[in-house]
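Write out this protein's structure.
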Amino acid sequence: MRHLLNPLDFSVGEIEQLLDLASDIEKNPDRYAHVCDGKKIATLFYEPSTRTRLSFEAAMLNLGGSVLGFASADSSSAAKGESVSDTIRVISCFADICAMRHPKEGAPMVASTKSSIPVINAGDGGHQHPTQTLTDLMTIRSLKGRIDNLTVGLCGDLKFGRTVHSLINALVRYTGIRFVLISPPELRVPEYIREDVLESNHIEYREVENLDDAMPDLDILYMTRVQKERFFNEEDYIRMKDCYILDKKKMALAKEDMFVLHPLPRVNEIAVEVDEDPRAAYFKQVQYGVYVRMALIMTLLEVEKPC
């Protein structure tokens, strides 16, 4: 039995196999409509979620399975003080696989040690979000035809953004990856990411504060929200916030084959006018997330690919 707690739990080869399966699901959805008949996924979401929770539920329903679970800690026995360890023991009696989102870093790992069913980390605090990373990798591969030899710009909250941390960890295993880290000083990537992931793997990267300066060099721009609550004072936030709003003017600085990704939800960091640009890929990204999660459920449940 395997779990997915970190994007590094799968080798590059295993990720390629999973993405190949997801691509086949995209092309032949009807072929997979009953491969999980009789199987159940439990979605244990201690934090609010729209895309991730519904994506997991849609994935299992598309495979012919069924769904149970809860959408907030308040609607579970966690409100009565039940531990994650006890919850997963109980859920293991009801479901065949579970996806867990939790505000505490490491909670899905704790659950995996007590679980008798596969556990998928659907986001733990500011730590990891591996299924979003698999979605990002599929989006990049589908749009660019490759994952290697790319210049990837990461913009916004790089300090607390778990999607950013997971994506960096995954991409450093591919050859020719270069990063442009675009953020205010207050929200730069944590030192452990810089030293233990980027520098220890000899990855080329540069840190900049201005999005306009970075745009011409990028093959992929990964936007995230700059959160007002992360700044020490409002003056610094007001000074920096407009530098990280992607609009038509900034898009005009980019390559014709540069694509924009975003884990969503979007607030105001991407102007609505950008949605009409063919390089805006964040809603395609959502759809790819369903295919990836279908492939992941099949992989962890060891369901065979239909003939």
